[in-house]
Amino acid sequence: MSQHPTHHRENHRIAVLGALALGFALLLVSCKAAVDQSEPAELIEKGWQKFRLDEQGSAAHFFTSALAKLADARSKSPETPTEKRLHIQATYGLGMVWSLGRHGEDSAKARGLFAEVIALEPKGEMAPWAALAIVRDEHLPVKSTDPIDRTALREKYQKVLTGYPGTPAAEEAFAFRQSLFLQTLTTEDARTSLAEMTAYLKDHPDTRCQSALYGLISQANRTLHDDPAALAASIKALETKEVDPSNPNMNNIVEYYSIGLTAEYDVGDFATARVYFNKFLDEYPTDQRAFNVRRELERMKMIEAAHGDTTVAGELGMRPAGGPGGLPEGSVLTTAPASAPESHKGGQ
Description:
This protein is mostly helical. The chain has 2 domains: 1-148, Serine Threonine Protein Phosphatase 5, Tetratricopeptide repeat; 153-348, Serine Threonine Protein Phosphatase 5, Tetratricopeptide repeat, CATH 1.25.40. 66% of the residues lie in helices and 0% in strands. The chain contains 15 helices and no strands. Helix 7 packs antiparallel against helix 8, helix 8 runs parallel beside helix 10 and helix 9 runs antiparallel to helix 10. The two termini are 26 Å apart.
């Protein structure tokens, strides 16, 4: 019922590409004031557009062309502040092509470009992103079977956190660091991560990574076999998900489907399952999963007709929403059970 790991990684990669492209396209606005610099800025913006569409060859071409024009300008006169900013952004963009867009083809080149960004302006706004990108490039395996040194990567993400405190890049470093704990699937690491994420969301209620962190909290609770808490966190992850209406690949298909199945089978909360299955059919009636969603709705209806609303979950080995081990009555959509660590609303 869960999404194949390969599809999950691809969907995550596409989501990262879209979020990054939107953010850095906005950064270019302030670089267009001078008429003589408009062409490099436009080339960089086109590069991000192609990057976002996963047209990496074209993206590399635009970033490289921008760098060539800026280098030509530097050969004729000293680099202006605007030219330097464009230089940094084009270098970072080309690094992203080789790191995320063409991951594994030339990691040394990608990391070298990010190191150049830091060297050009160590205290600049792009330095934290470049530092994060270097660690992330090492973190993301080329093949699913490639080993990773989780302990070393945790330390490297921590250096980004301490080196660039309070930056959006540091927030993402925290989320990536937590994912390393959860990959072990041990209860000890799950408890450690859950405690750290709960405290982080309490201290950083406006973090831009709140949706990602709630998703990781859900994963931690699954490892700890706390299905009601996992369901509550999955719903919070959906509610706090950033929406990019210009991204054609963004949708809630997987979230609606997964929440519906978790509510139905793991928690025994048919009411919540119906809410998200019906959302699925209303918004994505032609998706290939729609047939299964209709079958699940019919299945719940048949079970309730045969067993009654108050006994069905127990007879099937599922925990009813208002019964022992389940969520308090009426709290499925908003709160975790009293036995689970408290989740706090927070703000890639």
